[in-house]
Amino acid sequence: MPWRPILSALPALILFATTLTTTPPATTHSGSSSVSTSARLAGRVPRPVPLDDLPVTGLLQNRAAPTCVGVPDGGRNLTRPVLSLCVEGAAQSWTVMHPLTEGAVTAQWLCLDATHANFTDPGPTGWVVQLYSCNGTRAQTWRVTNGLIVSSLNGYCVGPSGAAIGFITCTPSGPRLWNVPSGRLVQGATQMVDDFTGTAGSAPDSSRWTEWSACSYNPSAAFGSIACGRRDSLDGDGHLVIPADPTHGSALRSTSAFTYGVFSAWLRLPSAPGYWPAFWMLNSPQNGSSVSQVGEIDAMEAYTTWPSQYHSTSHVYASGTQTNDTDHLCGGSADLSVAFHKYSVRVEPGADGRGRISYYLDDRQCGGAFTPATNPQSPWPFAPSLSRPNWMILDLAVGGADGKQVSATTPTSLLVERVEVRQLF
Q1: 38 in a domain, yes or no?
Q2: How many CB atoms lie within 10 A of CB 393?
Q3: In terms of CB atoms within 10 Å, which of 302, 357, 363, 391 comes out highest?
């Protein structure tokens, strides 16, 4: 990931679910000078994201207890999903394929499946929730509504059944209710916002942004050829331009930090392959003087050789050791360099006493992480036990992906349309 502590040289976990070898068509940004700034902002801020029926990914968390549905070790057909403490690893990462209508609920290439065979103790309804290879049948079709997970085949609801889940009659109360992946990011009042208005060639607001490099932080900030000094500027059309070329990257850091909230950036990623754009946060001191226990949250970390997907994850650097959370691969088939997209991370104290980090693309959740319940101070130095504020960083580095990218050959830029921090709702 972008940051490397002085004491650690361990590589970050890089997972590629898709390898794209074609270079996207070149795109150039051209603003319209005939549209006034006030009119442009009025049509753009706040930018609404259509609520549609696209897949969403996250936890299936029971509201009556701090437990989540998971795939048992091995993840085999004809096994029952288990209930365990929520840790939001891959085994608890469920995708609801159609959150507004009905469809499959899947994790680790298996689907929730309704059956009345194969098990000796089906429970009072005579039906069992099992895991089975996804096949698109009615037995694997579910409606997720008002906290209920309802089988389209038999009309029963999912609820706890010992250490597993089973079917119970549908009543909107108690253990039948679940927190499920949301179709829309919920957020509160604005704490900080920058729309990058100003004359072309001028620097962004110095009360909000400052240079970030090995010259202002520590030697670990020299990753990806990040150069010392300011190279970013406004384009006069409401965008911050963060440039890079095959030998020099650029980065800047917010001057304000926030412990909890929703952190968002509207970005247009570069189309030139070989670059490493990121929107991320550190909760270390501003000058990088301490590496004893530092938390990093990557809302968006992309490698432009693969233009349609990016990574969201968290890391901890403690006493020379790097710990990686599950690497969430976000995006899909759309080229992220063609248009602006909203990349967000929500940092919050959990209802069960642990902090939670959730990642979103265009207000759709694509992953998340919990701080450990057993000892929240180790290894995650995030909220709530270690409530240090998070500084936002925007950068465009060179290379990355452990050398798997093609080499950058042409200069390019990361365009930033808006950055905001909102309170938790």
Answers
A1: no
A2: 21
A3: 302
Let me know whether 299 and 192 are in one domain: yes
Tens of pLDDT, residue by residue over 23-69, are: 322 222 222 223 333 333 333 333 333 445 667 777 888 888 778 89
Domain-terminating residue out of 161, 179, 197: 179
Encoding tokens for residue 120? 């000796």
* Interatomic CA distance for residues 222 and 230, integer angstroms: 14
Check if the beta carbon of residue 273 is closer than 8 Å to that of residue 405.
yes
Distance CA 183, CA 96 (A): 10
Q: Are residues 173 and 193 in the same domain?
A: no
Cα torsion at 15, 17, 18, 24 (round to 10°)?
A: -60
Question: Residue 76's closest CA among 39, 108, 38?
Answer: 108
The pTM (predicted TM-score) of the whole model is 0.70
Q: What is the dihedral of CA 216, 220, 226, 227, to 10 degrees?
A: 40
| Cα distance between residue 231 and residue 351, in whole Å | 43
Model confidence over 248-274: pLDDT tens digits? 999 999 999 998 899 999 999 999 999
CA distances to 167, 189, 199 from 114, in Å? 9, 42, 61
- Output phi, psi for 288, to 5 deg: 70, 25
Q: Identify whether the C-beta of residue 267 lies closer than 8 Å to the C-beta of residue 417.
A: yes
**158 and 198 fall within a common domain:** no
Q: What pLDDT is recorded for position 365?
A: 84
Domain encompassing residue 202: 185-422
Q: What is the CATH number of the domain that holds 163?
A: 2.80.10.50
In tens, the pLDDT along 297-353 reads 999 999 999 999 999 988 877 767 777 777 888 988 889 999 999 999 988 876 555
Joined together, the tokens standing for residue 416 give 């930033």
Rounded Cα gap, residues 141 and 133, in angstroms = 13
152 plus 219 within the same structural domain: no
Q: How far is CA 405 from CA 135, 198, 275, 384, in A?
A: 35, 35, 8, 37
Contact in structure between 41 and 91 (CB atoms under 8 Å)? no
Domains: count for the chain: 2
- Per-residue pLDDT, averaged over 127-149, amounts to 89
Q: Is residue 380 part of a domain?
A: yes
